[in-house]
Amino acid sequence: MSLVLGSVTLPRPAVVLAPMAGITDRPFRRLARRFGCHLAWSEMIASRELLRAQGNSRSSHNGARSLRMCDPNDGDGAPFAVQLAGCDPEIMAEAARFNADRGAALIDINMGCPVKKVVGGQGGAALMRDEALAGRIMEAVVNAVDIPVTLKTRLGWGEGDLTAPSLARVAEAAGIALVTIHGRTRESLYGGHADWSAIRAVREATSLPLLANGDVRTLDDARRILRETGADGVMIGRAAQGAPWLPGQIARGLVAEAEGRIPPPGPSLAERLDAIAEHFEGLLELHGLERGLRVSRKHMGWYADSLSGGGPFRQAYMAIGEAESARILLKTFLDRLRTEGEDALPLEKAA
Fold it and tell me: 10 Å Cβ neighbour count for 122?
């Protein structure tokens, strides 16, 4: 049975790309979907900053960036799913209305970001410590829009404070359509291992559709997290950095196994290299030459990690301060890899 969220229909199990600040912008989302990812979330957008920028031609750099991040036109006809962060119910509701009016198909509320700046402002994971306020935010956002509202959170603030099951029940009562659980606490940040067994407690606490998130890097990981949590799908975050094809590869593998087929191979080296070149150009188009080059450095570094000769390329790329020079260096590097063929990709990275 499919997972229906308003105008968005996802297969079960669904495989979606996590919202990641500074990463899941338009070029990254487009690539992920092209390779078969079922849904790709926007970057996390600060609701207060967004509303400050609305209608303000002299808005701050951050405000202008927030407006750009919630542009619903990715150019491939896919539904736009936007994640909002904040701690004020009225501001969150207004930011949700703004995005719904612009064409967003889904709104996600962030109650899991562990970053000090977000938590210090009482947003993100800090809301797990104030269930009453969390409930008011969810109710305000749900009541503000006619599109489905979802929630992404963590297991709790710390190991002795696993409040996710209770918060999921609050979410269900507030009209939330789906909940995603990252299997770590705020205190654990991104260290250690995600506790998939603890996500099962959320499955048992609510009838809401559930996505499980944390340490899903392979098809086998996806199989196991689905089995251990009883979730309706998986969300993939950091494992897709430098591999925007990974969520789609896992999605195709799950479908093949459900149909009794052998999972298909991942994209070829040529397809991956073409994606890297497209990603670079997309970043320049979206962000402009100067900022686009700066943003591209982390992505090209991640790509370089899995390619032969990636170390020297990374070092040279990070030293370049002009977009055209970076384009030439990247083309030279990718052309060499195309000539080398599959020898350019270490075997342990080919899966």
Answer: 14
Most distant CA pair in the chain, distance: 60
167-170's contacts with Cβ under 8 Å and 24+ in sequence apart are: 167/111, 167/128, 167/131, 167/134, 168/202, 168/205, 168/206, 168/208, 169/205, 169/206, 170/131, 170/134, 170/135, 170/138
Rounded Cα distance between 190 and 294, Å, is 24
Domains by residue range for the chain, with CATH: 3-258 (3.20.20.70), 269-349 (1.10.1200)
What is the pLDDT at residue 63? 65
Say what angle helices 289-304 and 323-340 make with each other, to 10 degrees. 30
Closest among 221, 209, 207 to 179, alpha carbons compared: 209
All residues at 6 or more sequence positions from 63 whose CB lies less than 8 Å from its CB, including other chains: 49, 50, 52, 53, 56
For the question of residue 113 being annotated catalytic, the response is yes
Phi, psi of 40, rounded to the nearest 5 degrees: -125, 120
**High-pLDDT (> 70) share of the chain, %:** 95
Q: Which of 2-6, 56-60, 174-178, 252-256 has the lowest mean pLDDT?
A: 56-60
122 confidence band (pLDDT: 50, 70, 90): confident
Mean pLDDT, residues 42-64 taken together: 77
pTM recorded for the entire structure: 0.93
SS3 (DSSP) at 71:
coil
Task: Give 257's Cβ-side CA count (13 Å radius).
Answer: 14
Output DSSP code: residue 123.
-
The terminus-to-terminus CA distance of the chain in angstroms comes to 29
For residue 152, the number of C-alpha atoms closer than 13 Å in the C-beta half-sphere is 33
